[in-house]
Amino acid sequence: MVEYHLAKVEIGVRFPVTAFMKNEMIKKRILTGDRPTGPLHLGHYIGSLENRVKLQREYETYILIADMQALTDNADNPEKVRKNILEVAFDYLAAGLDPKICTIVIQSLVPELAELTMYYLNLVTLSRLQRNPTVKGEMQEKGYGANVPAGFLMYPVSQAAHITAFKANLVPVGEDQLPMIEQTVEIVRSFNRIYKPVLVEPKALTSKITRLPGTDGRAKMSKSLNNAIYLSDSSAVVAKKVMEMFTDPGHIHAEDPGKVEGNPVFAYLDAFDQDVKKVDELKKQYQKGGLGDVEVKKILIEVLNNFLNPIRKRRAEFAEKPEQVMRILKEGTEKGRKVATQTLKEVRQAMHLDYF
Ligand code: TRP
């Protein structure tokens, strides 16, 4: 006891804590998340998951499994959301998020996030919500028109609540989420101006490859478009999906010159093959003529399976112990709720809602 005390004093004397050290000690925060509507795919990995895994040591990292957001367009299918909580958690852990250093939180178990959303809704207009390009696109895809669920239209506001309740500095996301961060910044500025400067302005972090195309050649890989390769796909399924993949429709014979732009096979090689020189050679050969689709696809299958093998192995290990993963989620949620509770206290004070 005494020794410990002395040691502490000594350190204080010999190494006075400088502003630099203080900055070093207070880690900046990350918050990001996913809707649990299905297992995660390669697009999620490239768009955001890879960055989270890389940054989890440098930043205090919170990852939200956004089950309430998933319900905004799945109100009639709660079992799907429930089931996919674990699937998404398996994917996180398999991809390398370490529950010892990053905190995984279930949205619905942090009611403070819903409360904060209600306050923010007064700072956002209906026309602003209707202008969000990502929401607009999704509404079109789902054919909602005027019958859009109100909860769906305002999910970017709840997302602003997620980010700011955790006072996140950085939000690693796919490109389609940039409008959400923009809207969050607007809300933060309004709130801080009208009430008190309590909230932190976040920045988005996108990856080098901003959007991974689907196996059908469409611009975005997505579960709802049925053009995704999942982190949990077996090697046989990956092989089948790659063999059926869209390429250059004008590239009929191996000898024909082929197009690399808009050809997802090469987009995936760019994203997952570490050997940039080899990929460049393949591209040149393909463009010139003399490289068949089947041949490049075989290379891609190997690259993807090499990338996915360790993820599959870890996933299988976690999938054997769902209780352990549920415990990780429970503990993460409890820890996350404390952070949100503290922010809400400050928010209520700033809004003069601290009555007693
Ligand atoms: N909307 C995000 C998606 O569909 C998921 C999400 C929910 C999120 N809350 C968030 C992302 C907060 C970043 C920050 O991928």
Structure description:
With 356 residues, the chain is mainly α. Helices cover 57% and strands 6% of the residues. It contains 16 helices and 5 strands. The protein has helices at residues 2-14, 19-25, 42-55, 67-71, 78-95, 111-121, 126-131, 133-142, 150-153, 155-165, 178-194, 235-243, 264-272, 276-288, 293-319, 322-350; strands at residues 29-34, 60-65, 102-106, 170-172, 203-205. It has a 3-stranded parallel beta sheet. β4, α11 and β5 form a beta-alpha-beta unit. α5 (78-95) packs across α15 (293-319) and α6 crosses α10 (155-165). The protein is globular. It starts with a helix and ends in a 6-residue tail after the last helix. 39% of the residues are buried. The model is unreliable at 1-13 (pLDDT under 50). The site of tryptophan (TRP) has 14 residues, from β1 and α10.
